[in-house]
Structure formats: structure tokens, C-alpha cells
Amino acid sequence: MTKKLNLNDYLGHNMNCTCGEEHKTNLKIVDIDKNAVARLPKHIETLGYKNPFLVADVNTWNAAGTQVTKELETANISYKKYIFKDKELVPDEKTLGSLMMAFPRDCDVIIAIGSGTLNDLCKFSSFQLGLDYMVFATAPSMDGFVSIGAALITDYVKTTYQAHVPLAVIGDTDILAAAPMEMITAGLGDILGKYTCLLDWKMAHIITGEYYCKTIADMVKEAVEIVVEESTRIKDRNPEAIKAVTEALVLSGIAMSFVGNSRPASGSEHHLSHYWEMKFQAEGKKPVLHGIKVGIGMIIVTKMYEMLEQEHFDFTSLKERSFDYAAWEKKVNDCYQDAAPGIIALEEKTQKNNLSERNKRLTILEEKWSEIVQTIRESLPSSAEMESLLSCLGAPTKPAQIGISPQLVEDAILLAKEVRNRFTLLQILWDTGLSESYAKTIANLH
């Protein structure tokens, strides 16, 4: 019998951890189950609110808006609503501005009816307004429900802004199970991405000494394994399987709250996804769901880790390698275009490509190479296994299936690390001089 998560174990109290930190989340209520929509008024009243502001787009309003408003009206809870007309919301300055301008001053809580982009917009706007917010989830499509960060696009760059977590996440499994299958498999892709991001986090701990919490990493990995067990029932839209996926996504967000950033849930697979997303937006292409791209990114990163564990390095020669900053800057300008100034400014600030710092990392890589190889082997399922799991559910597993060219794959492996100041496999490949060869190898596979 599949083990089940109990998210209430993590709510309502501080957790003194063996890592030496005290973990806590401001999330108070998680209700992901059958008939959860009928319990929404009770949750609003329990939290002390009287006049919610409902925010949706045309798709999520069709999925749940009528049911939500019916329950609120039956409970005599007054509300106001704002429905974005866009079928493909872009979380940029214009979209955020329209939401802020529509906010009624007499409302006391914002309720996002939706998933990814809507959640980010409501999270950030409520934070800026000094209000709490709640989420009524309409699809198990991503893991950002209860993270403290809001992923927005400003000056053409995908940027995560500090915000706050919702006080409640409500998800009616009948509504969640009726979501487009593409959105459900996107949620699965986001969950499977935890395999590579947790390994990236462990690599950062070993190589740079970055803070790492095994308890939180194990918590996320357990949720991933529960979803993998349930994966055969996802295709049938089994409510229990959909509940498992949604709860795992929420737990991933709780883990982010515990750490105070997205490290337990986002690594190199997300960086590839962010890069592709920025390029699609710049070229005016229809966006692809975040979790779909993360799933494909996870397979690519897993393949590169499989390649890395077979390497034998001459570390002395590696430390003598130079860095052509002018060529790098030209490549950044060519690929990032309007977003390039922000990328270059980030490098000037963080010095990810500083040769002295690189050589310090190479010294540690040399000292701990056997430990690193063993950690890789113990941490990841095979790329073939992950590819099979996703393809059995009809999810894309190759970049070309979602319109990503071999050149875009190659460029992402070379440059996606520049989007964030975060140590991942992509930085290891740069440090060891493998970025270009791996980028070409992977691009040719797809």
C-alpha cells in the first residue's frame, strides 16, 4: 500500500531540526480532498476574513469559479472578483499592474483561483499590499503554491521576488482531476525535477559548503517517491493519485519555506526551463507549461550527471585554463538580447566565473571526487527510467517535442546558469571545462 503524506505534521509549529536550524511555515490550512470547495467558506471564516477578492483567468474561472462563488453566496460571504481576459497570462509588469489597479480597498484577503502564474501574481501583489492570500488550486501543475518566492518577468528576465506564503491551500480533487492532462503531467514533471535539484543542492554543500538540510531533502524525496508509486494511476485521473501529486507539490513548497529559498525544489533543471521560457517569450512563441519544461530539463540533467560520473580529470590542467570574458559577454548579448544587461550585472556582482574562485572549487572537486561520484550514483534513478515514466503518461520527454531546437538546448546548457546565483551541475561543467562538449552531445541526442 502506498504511503501517504500528512502535511499537517509540518503546520502550526516550529520544527527544531538536527541541522541546527529552526524550520517553520506560515501556512495554516491544507485541504486537498473530495468536496474541498464546499469547505472553502469555513476556511475563510476560520482565518477571520469577511470580504475576499477572487482572482482568476478565463480558464480557471471556467474550471472552478462558478462552484467557488456558489459556496460563498450560500455561506453569505461577500466577495469581489477580477478575471484576466488573457488565455495565456504572462507574469510581467503590465499584468501585475492591471491586477494592482483592480484591487478593491475594502477586501481583506486575496484568493487565487488557479495555479502557477495566478499564484505568483496574487502572492506578490498581496505581499506588496500587506494582505494575506489563499489559493484555491485548479490544477496540480507546479510546486510554487506555498513557496515564499514569486516568479515574475521584469525587464525580460525571469526573476524570483521575495514575497510570502499563502495562509491556506484548498484543492478539490474532483476539480484537480478534471484539469487538462497536460497540466497534471506538468505537475509530475515538476515533482520529478526534485531528483536532480536535490542532488545539485548536495553537490553545492560538498563543493562550496552551502547550507544543506538532510531532513528537508529526505522529506522532499519521500514525497517524490510516493508520487512515483502512484504514477500508473495518474493517467486514469484517479483522485487519490491526483491528491498525492498535489500534496507533494505543496510539501515541496513547505520545504522551500523551511529553508527560506527555493533550493530544495529548484536546480539546474529549472535553470534550463527558465532559459527556454525567456527565449520563447522574446520570440513571441506560445509558452510551454513550466513543469513540462522542468521534466525535460530533469532528463537532460540526469543524462549529464550519468556522463559526469564516468569522467577522469587532470585537475592541474583544468586550473590553468583561461576564461575569455569578451567572448562570454558577446554570447550573453547574442542569446539573452534585451535581458543581457541584467545577466552581465549579475555576473559582475556574484563572480560565478571568477578564475580564482573556480580553482578553489576545483581543489575541492579533486579532494572529494570519489564521494561526489558515489553521491551521484546513490541519488538518481536512470534517465531511461524517468523518460519511460513520463512518456507512458503521454508527456513530452524530448526538447523537440515542445519546439526547442538543438541550438536552444546547447545554448541553455552553456548559459542557463547565468540566470541565477546558484551552484548546480551547470557550474560544475563550466568549472571542469565540459560545458561545450556536453552541450553539443546532448543537443545531438535530441
Observed structural traits:
446 residues, 10 strands, single chain, alpha/beta, 56% helix
- As a percent range, the share of helical residues equals 55-70%
How large a portion of the residues is in β-strands, by DSSP E?
Answer: 5-15%
Mean pLDDT: 94
Alpha carbon gap, first and last residue:
37 Å
Mass-distribution shape: globular
The largest beta-sheet arranges its strands as 3-10-7-6-4-5
Structure description:
β4, α2 (58-74) and β5 form a beta-alpha-beta unit. This protein starts with 14 loop residues before the first strand and ends with a helix. A six-stranded parallel beta sheet has the order 3-10-7-6-4-5, sandwiched between helices. The protein has a two-stranded antiparallel ribbon with strand order 1-2. It is globular. With 446 residues, the protein is α/β, with parallel strands linked by helices. The mean pLDDT is 94. It is 56% helix and 11% strand.
